[in-house]
Every structure is written in structure tokens, then in C-alpha cells.
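sry for the spam today, last one i promise. C-alpha cells for design, 448 residues
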């Protein structure tokens, strides 16, 4: 029994020690976690305290910096930045110094007509009049200036960036480096403004302070070779040669372009021109005009028509692109007809009279003593103009130009053509002249 009690007591003591050790370890873990949490909390509080001190410092300084002095200043200025919730940045146009106005409740704000405005209605470029406290920068009022000037829908403004001048009509204004220039609310370089642009300008006295491009420009460029001729018409009012139509400035938007070139179908199209972009028009799009040609040989059939040596059946309509061609008509038993023509009509008809070839028998040989027939010589007769009737020794030979053979000796040539004075010319042929050619110039008959 005593041994059993002794063993129970030892076990109880061992369990107690184990419990105390575990409790100690758990307490240590809890203590460490607590210290970590406390340290983190203290750090955050210190950080917030520093931040609060900084903000407090700023808040303390602000009243000192914006402390009202009661000394008021009246200026005319231009708004240089988007207005804030309670601030307006302006530039004094007299001394070009920037002022940041602090807007409080009760500040009078009006447009040029005296109508009330909200702060948000003031925009960059507005010319304003204000009277503000020089210490607090709080204005008594903020008004669109009636002393400043504004010109709208201005075109052909000439901007001289070297001399810093703007010429509008007969008036010349100056500007400074503080000039504000905008397009769609974004800054724009003065070099990008073309005289064709539409502008709004604001200024004070003889100085421009604000330029807004209300309608910008792009370009139209006609691609053509150096020798191409034709005309380009823009918006039914501006006409240029094809060679002049290189990077032509036009206002942004839709424009009607008509291009005309001899022998080609005209191009007519509406193009959309965007700001500072170039619209290219290529003349390769143009198509040649096509006309209908009909050649009629009066009183004959089965003739052939040749256009630039290409054969077509007679009396058939021929489709030809506009241009220059060599035309010929042929029929057996008739003289060939030819002429250079220009195809420049939708429909062209050419009527011709084919002349029959004359079969000229050799002239009868003259009887000479001691020789029943004399030798023959060849004679060519032509006239200017051609087409005259030729008679030799009162015998009809044909229509000039004509050739025949004649006996050597004396002969008489007669030439007759309607509308011209007739000719009678004696000629002589001898055995030393195997061939003779004559060209006679006809004179128009008097009264024709």
C-alpha cells in the first residue's frame, strides 16, 4: 500500500510539471504576439501623428500666406489654365505676371452682358476683369472683360512668327511668348496655322493674347506626270491646272473635286479632308473617252476602212478612244482616200466621195514625115489643190494627179476645177526627156 501511494504521488507531480511547462510556452507565444501587435500599432500611430503634424503645419501656413491685407488691385487678365474647384489662374496683360485667384462664396461672377456665371463656365482664353485682395488673392468680382476685343470666323490671318505679329485685314497686332494658341482644346504651334484656317482671336488694345483654330485645314494632292494637262476644280469655285494642284490647302471637312482632262472621262468625287492630313488623287483612275466613228462612202459598197492600218468593214460604227488617228478608205477600182482625223466627239460621221481610177489609153501618135509613129514620153500632171479635171489636146485625161504617155512634140494642156480659174498651158516634149512632171497651182476664181 505505501508503495502504491508513493507511485501515484510521483505521477501527479510529473503531470503538474508538464502542465506548467506547456502553460509557460503558451504564455511566451502570446506575449510575443502581443508585443508585435503593440509595436505595429505604435508605428502606425507615429506615422499618422507625423502626417497630422505636417497637415497641421500646412494648414497653419496657409492662413498666414493668404492673409487678407485689405489692399485691392484691379487688373485685366487672361485665364491660362482650366479653372479649379476654387482657383483661377490668370495672366495680367499689363505686366505679364501670373496670379492665382482664390474663389470663395460671395464672389461676383458675370459675363460681358452682366449675366451671372458659374466658376465652371470660365474657360482658358477668356479675357477677364477682376479686383482682388493682394494678400489673400480673393477677388471681389470676376467678369468677362468689355474692354478686351474678340474677332470670330477670321480667315486669311497672316502670322509672322519672326516678328511676332498677326495681320488681319489692314490691322497689325503684336503678341508675346505668353500667347495661347489652341485647336480643339489642345495647344497648337503657330507654324501649323494656315491662312485658310478659321480663327477666333482675343486681345487687349493692340496685342493678341489668344488664338483658337475653329476650323483647321488639310491638303489635296493630285498625282500627275510632268506633261499631263487638264484642270482641277475644287468646290465649284477654285480652278487650278493639274500641275498646280500639289498639296493644296483646304479647310477640314468634305470637298467636291472635279478633274477634267482632254480625251478622258472627268473625275467627280467628294473627299473628306481631316486636319493636317493629305488626300491623294491619282489620275490613273481616269478612263479615256470613247467615241463612235462612222465612215460613209457615197454611192459605193463593199469598201474597207482602215484606222491606223487596222481594217474595219465599210459603213460600220467603229468605237475609238479620243485621240489622233490616220484614216484610209479603199475599194478596188477606186482611188485610195486618206486623211488624219481627231476623235474628240461622242459621235462622228465622215462622208467621202471615192474617185474612180481613170484608165487612160496612150494618146495617138502624131504622124511625122518619114516616120509613121514617133516615140512616146511619160507625163505626170498634178495640181494644187488636187482633184482638177485634166485635158490634153482637147482630150479628157482624168482628175489630178494623173499620168499618161504622149508623143514627142507640142501639146496643149487644159485644167478645169470648180471654183478656180481654168488654165491652158502649152508644153513641149522631145526625145531627150523621157519623163516630165508638172505641178500647176490653181487660183480661186474672182467672186468665189
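last one done:
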Amino acid at each position: 500500500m505505501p508503495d502504491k501511494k508513493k507511485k501515484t504521488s510521483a505521477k501527479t507531480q510529473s503531470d503538474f510539471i508538464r502542465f506548467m511547462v506547456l502553460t509557460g510556452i503558451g504564455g511566451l507565444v502570446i506575449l510575443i504576439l502581443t508585443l508585435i501587435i503593440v509595436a505595429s500599432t505604435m508605428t502606425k500611430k507615429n506615422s499618422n501623428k507625423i502626417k497630422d503634424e505636417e497637415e497641421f503645419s500646412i494648414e497653419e501656413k496657409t492662413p498666414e500666406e493668404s492673409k487678407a491685407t485689405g489692399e485691392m488691385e484691379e487688373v485685366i487678365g487672361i485665364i491660362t489654365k482650366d479653372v479649379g474647384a476654387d482657383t483661377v489662374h490668370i495672366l495680367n496683360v499689363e505686366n505679364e505676371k501670373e496670379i492665382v485667384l482664390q474663389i470663395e462664396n460671395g464672389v461676383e461672377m458675370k459675363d460681358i452682358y452682366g449675366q451671372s456665371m458659374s466658376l465652371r463656365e470660365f474657360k482658358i482664353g477668356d479675357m477677364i476683369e477682376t479686383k482682388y485682395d493682394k494678400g489673400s488673392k480673393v477677388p471681389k468680382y470676376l467678369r468677362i472683360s468689355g474692354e478686351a476685343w474678340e474677332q470670330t470666323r477670321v480667315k486669311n490671318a497672316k502670322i509672322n512668327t519672326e516678328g511676332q505679329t498677326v495681320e488681319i485685314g489692314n490691322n497689325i497686332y503684336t503678341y508675346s511668348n505668353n500667347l495661347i494658341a489652341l485647336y480643339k482644346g489642345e495647344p497648337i504651334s503657330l507654324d501649323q496655322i494656315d491662312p485658310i484656317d478659321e480663327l477666333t482671336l482675343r486681345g487687349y488694345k493692340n496685342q493678341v493674347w489668344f488664338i483658337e483654330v475653329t476650323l483647321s485645314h488639310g491638303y489635296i494632292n493630285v498625282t500627275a506626270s510632268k506633261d499631263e494637262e487638264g484642270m482641277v476644280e475644287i468646290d465649284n469655285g477654285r480652278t487650278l491646272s493639274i500641275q498646280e494642284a500639289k498639296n493644296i490647302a483646304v479647310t477640314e471637312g468634305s470637298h467636291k473635286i472635279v478633274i477634267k482632262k482632254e480625251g478622258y472621262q472627268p473625275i467627280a468625287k467628294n473627299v473628306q479632308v481631316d486636319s493636317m492630313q493629305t488626300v491623294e488623287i491619282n489620275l490613273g483612275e481616269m478612263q479615256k473617252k470613247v467615241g463612235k466613228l462612222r465612215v460613209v462612202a457615197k454611192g459605193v459598197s463593199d469598201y474597207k476602212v482602215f484606222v491606223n492600218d487596222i481594217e474595219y468593214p465599210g459603213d460600220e460604227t467603229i468605237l475609238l478612244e479620243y485621240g489622233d488617228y490616220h484614216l484610209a478608205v479603199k475599194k478596188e477600182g477606186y482611188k485610195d482616200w486618206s486623211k488624219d482625223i481627231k476623235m474628240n466627239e461622242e459621235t462622228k460621221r465622215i462622208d467621202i466621195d471615192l474617185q474612180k481610177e481613170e484608165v487612160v489609153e496612150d494618146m495617138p501618135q502624131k504622124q511625122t514625115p518619114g516616120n509613121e509613129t514617133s516615140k512616146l514620153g511619160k507625163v505626170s500632171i498634178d495640181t494644187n489643190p488636187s482633184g482638177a479635171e485634166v485635158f490634153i489636146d482637147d482630150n479628157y485625161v482624168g482628175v489630178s494627179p494623173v499620168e499618161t504617155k504622149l508623143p514627142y512634140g507640142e501639146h496643149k494642156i487644159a485644167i478645169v476645177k470648180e471654183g478656180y480659174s481654168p488654165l491652158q498651158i502649152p508644153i513641149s516634149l522631145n526625145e531627150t526627156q523621157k519623163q516630165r512632171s508638172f505641178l500647176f497651182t490653181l487660183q480661186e476664181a474672182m467672186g468665189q
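Helices lie at 2-65. ok im logging off now
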